[in-house]
Amino acid sequence: MKKSNEEEIQTIEKQLEIVQWSHFITTLTEAILLTRLYKLQGESPGEWKIVEGVWIETFGKFIEADSVSKQVQNAHEFYDYLFQKQAISGDTIQTIGSIIQLIGGVEVLKEFNIEGIIP
């Protein structure tokens, strides 16, 4: 029996929800491992900024995954817009985390007297 469009949409939304949570878990694992590595190596302030940026990005990914789950679970249009706003907030936080990682990366390059972002 062929699925209706609505059933297909619900299936895809559930799959997207799983992907969002998988991204969060992957980023959380990266943040934990980078933190452990930094504590063992204690390299530089620039590298610590990279770790901080990854943690901020992880927080943003959590907010985004949470909002996608809430969108999938709620059919009411008002909540849909509310959760879209939450997802955008998560995206914004992730972007801030990425910028902090960029700043940290540039600082690490400067420590090795390498100028510019692109070699």
Can you tell me about this structure?
About 85% of the residues lie in helices and about 0% in strands. The protein is built from three helices and no strands. Helix 1 packs antiparallel against helix 2 (about 45-75) and helix 2 packs antiparallel against helix 3. The chain is elongated and about 65 Å long. The mean pLDDT is about 90.
Oligomer: single chain
- Low-confidence runs of at least 5 consecutive residues: none
Helix content: over 70%
Give the percentage of residues in beta strands.
Answer: under 5%
Characterize the overall form: elongated
Secondary structural class: mainly alpha
Rg for CA atoms: 19 Å
What are the secondary-structure elements, in order, as H or E?
HHH
C-alpha end-to-end distance: 56 Å
Q: What is the count of DSSP helices, taking H or I runs of 4+ residues? A: 3
Number of domains: 1
Describe how the helices and strands are arranged.
Elements: H1 5-41, H2 45-73, H3 77-111
Helix pairs in contact: 1-2, 2-3
